[in-house]
Amino acid sequence: MERAFRQRQLHARCVDVFMNRDTAPLAAGHEVISVSVNADLDADTLRALAEGGTRMIAQRATGFNNIALDTAAELGMTVARVSYYSPFAVAEFAWALAMAVNRRVVRAARRTREFDFRLDGLMGRDMHGRTVGVVGTGKIGEAFTRIAHGFGMNLLGWDVAENPACVELGMRYVELPRLLADADLLSLHVPLLPDTHHLIDGPALRSMKDDALLVNSSRGGLIDTEALVEELRQGRFSGVGLDVYEAESGLFFHDKSLDVVQDDVLARLMTFSNVLVTSHQAYYTSDAVGQIVDTTVSNVEDYLAGRTSANVLTAPGQPPAVPR
Questions:
Q1: Exposure of 203 by Cβ count < 10 A (0-12 exposed, 13-18 middle, 19+ buried)?
Q2: Start and end of every D-isomer specific 2-hydroxyacid dehydrogenase NAD-binding domain (predicted)?
Q3: pTM
Q4: For the chain, what percent of residues have pLDDT higher than 90?
Q5: Is residue 248 flagged as an active site residue?
Q6: Whose CA, among 7, 80, 200, 207, lies 20 to 30 Å from 188?
Q7: In this model, does residue 6 exceed pLDDT 90?
Q8: What is the secondary structure of 53-71 as a DSSP string?
């Protein structure tokens, strides 16, 4: 990131911390800051940043649920995001999670490292001919659907609007309860908004098949994790693959291997042999990161030049946008 800014003749100071109300003073005197999606830009943090002279926030992510956009608009701050980067990075990783939990890859790898080559407990299922439920069929959901089509799966979708490309692949759009009840594999690809928080709650989880696979590579808050743990305790679900967790802030992207675990829900989740948790890495390919960096730098250049783009969420004189 720093190299990219320098190549565009922009001075950058890189600090290895996540932005929040405690670290906001570090940004004092900097008109522009660039943050990750794990920054906590609540109202208090934004006010502290504004008092320090920050006028523009360039978020290196598509999601923006961590930013109090109304407060940013009140303060006259410009907020921009990366509205697009390789959808294949996330879609492919979602499928990596699905196949890993379906075919018990992690368990098998642990065994063979100890020269245990038994097949006990490693049986999976063919994806061909089974039903996938895709919640959210935007760019990432479409890429995920194309892979599912390649497996020869029955395609069900749910979204606020149908994606013609998915329909062309044979996807049938249904109401969410029907999708949850019929899906052998459920994959989440919607943004985290007030309407989607805990979209997959206790009743939704209980409506799913006992042997379904559940994958979330979008945002942790889409799933009520405590409810998920309770269902797993009942022996439900063939496999669960999570690249995100609703309380991941302060945990993910840090080394906590020597710390005492304070998050009882996450600790319990980790005990289930059919659950695979990864560290919000679905986006992490050279292709996607390169696009994120280029777009972030362009967003900063646009701000400095007084230009706007579809990446801008708030700007002086305009209400906060609510993009999908």
A1: exposed
A2: 96-282
A3: 0.89
A4: 85
A5: yes
A6: 80
A7: no
A8: T--EEEESSS--TTB-HHH
CA distance 282 to 167: 25
Summarize the chain as % helix, strand, coil (round to 5). Answer: 35, 15, 50
Q: Report the pLDDT value the prediction gives residue 246, as an integer from 0 to 100.
A: 95
Q: What pLDDT score was predicted for residue 63? A: 85
Among the residue ranges 14-18, 86-90, 228-232, the one predicted with the least confidence is 14-18
* pLDDT value at 249 more than 90: no
Q: What is the CATH number of domain 2-84+286-314?
A: 3.40.50.720
Question: pLDDT by residue (tens digit) across 126-161?
Answer: 999 999 999 999 999 999 999 999 999 999 999 999
Based on its alpha-carbon atoms, the radius of gyration of the chain, rounded to whole angstroms, reads 21
Residue intervals of the chain classified under CATH 3.40.50.720 are 2-84+286-314, 87-277
- Given 60, 104, 236, 280, which residue is catalytic? 280
Rounded CA-CA distance 225/135 in Å is 17
Unique residue bearing structure tokens 């940004």: 27
Do 126 and 109 touch, CB atoms closer than 8 A?
no
Q: Residue 224's closest CA among 207, 199, 244?
A: 199
Give which of 302, 290, 104, 98 is closest to 213, Cα–Cα.
Answer: 98
User: Residues in the chain, how many?
Assistant: 324
Please, what CATH class does the domain formed by 87-277 belong to? Answer: alpha beta
Distance of CA 257 to the CA centre of its chain: 23
Catalytic residue among 30, 189, 219, 236: 219
| Highest mean pLDDT: which range of 178-187, 248-257, 258-267 | 178-187
Please give the angle made by the CA atoms of 101, 64 and 156, to the nearest 5 degrees.
45
**Cβ neighbours of 323 (radius 10 Å):** 12
User: What's the pLDDT score for residue 2?
Assistant: 58
